[in-house]
Amino acid sequence: MAVSIRPEGREQGEARDLTALQLVLERAIRSRCFGLLASARDDLIQNAMVRILERNRHEELGRRGTSYVWKVAQSVIVDELRRLGRERRLTENVSKERRPWSDPVDGIQLRQCLERLEERRRMAVTLHLSGLRIPEVARAACWTEKTAENLIYRGLDDLRVLLGEAGR
């Protein structure tokens, strides 16, 4: 087994390349990954790093441009969304056999009550109920975080009142 001896400068250059690669991946994934995938960001970054390093065993890391790294990050995110979709479909197939735990009448009432909210509050509450956090709602709707927070909390209060009235 032959041992390759590398000059020290080359090892430092590779370490810098890896650090730069990781920073680009983090920026790419964090800018595209929120809501449903927010909790899996670190795993997605690691997955993308592994893909790039496996593919580039024989190439220098610096040869590929930043656009390549962004494409790998996008590919990792799409693959994760597809995997989650497959899991959801499998879960839905299993749950069709069981009695559904949600009442469709309540779902209809919720939609009707949401429709009665003021437009900006409805949008904020809908995004919030779909799993987005306040900063993500603010970013998606081009609001300040304080505006998004107020619209969510006031919209939820209005929704509680409307659902209470509908339940009578």
What are the secondary-structure elements, in order, as H or E?
Answer: HHHHHHH
Largest sheet: none
Which stretches are poorly predicted, pLDDT < 50 over at least 5 residues? Answer: 1-7, 99-104
Provide the domain count: 2
Total number of beta strands: 0
The proportion of residues forming helix, as a percent range, comes to over 70%
Mean pLDDT: 77
**Compute the gyration radius: what is it?**
23 Å
Q: Which secondary-structure class do the elements indicate?
A: mainly alpha
What's the overall geometry?
Answer: elongated
Helix segment count?
7
From the N-terminal CA to the C-terminal CA, the straight-line distance is 80 Å
What share of the residues does DSSP label as strand, in percent? under 5%
